[in-house]
Amino acid sequence: MAATIDQVGQEQAITDHIADLLKGLSGSELLMVKRFVEFVSYGAGLHTIETAPIDDQPETAEEHGAVQEARDSNARGERGIPHDELRREFGL
Questions:
Q1: I need a labelling partner for 70 at 20 to 30 A (CA). Which of 9, 12, 29, 47 fits?
Q2: pLDDT, greater one: 19 or 2
Q3: 82: Cβ–Cβ under 8 A, 6 or more apart, which residues?
Q4: What is the pLDDT of residues 25-58, one digit of tens each?
Q5: Cβ(59)–Cβ(68) under 8 Å?
Q6: Are 33 and 25 in contact (CB under 8 A)?
Q7: Alpha-carbon distances of 56 from 52, 59, 60, 68, 69, rounded to whole Å
């Protein structure tokens, strides 16, 4: 559904107001806002990924093969899975 001119104007006014608010924030406050916007945009999955502990287990042969397959595919110029398709697959 296409946005009306009035809706576009309201969205721009909100965007402008948010930009003005951001100008007064400190670095740590901006980082908090960035994380919040990412959470709203991407859902809890991004937060989970960012805060997950580093995988310090040795790479298995199966994992190594999957990584090599992806690298080979990329080297052949094959495209990966589009972001929208992944979001749908995971119900985001």
A1: 47
A2: 19
A3: none
A4: 999 999 999 888 877 877 777 778 878 898 889 9
A5: no
A6: yes
A7: 12, 9, 12, 19, 22
| Two tokens, residue 5 | 């001119």
What are 85's two structure tokens?
């398709």
CA atoms within 13 Å, Cβ hemisphere of 43: 6
Q: Please give the structure tokens belonging to residue 57.
A: 């287990």
What pLDDT score does 90 carry? 83
pTM value surpassing 0.90? no
Q: What Cα–Cα distance (Å) separates residue 80 from each residue in 15, 64, 66, 86, 89?
A: 32, 18, 13, 10, 14
- Tell me the pLDDT band of 65, cut-offs 50, 70 and 90: very high
Matching residue, tokens 């806002």 = 33
DSSP state of 65: H
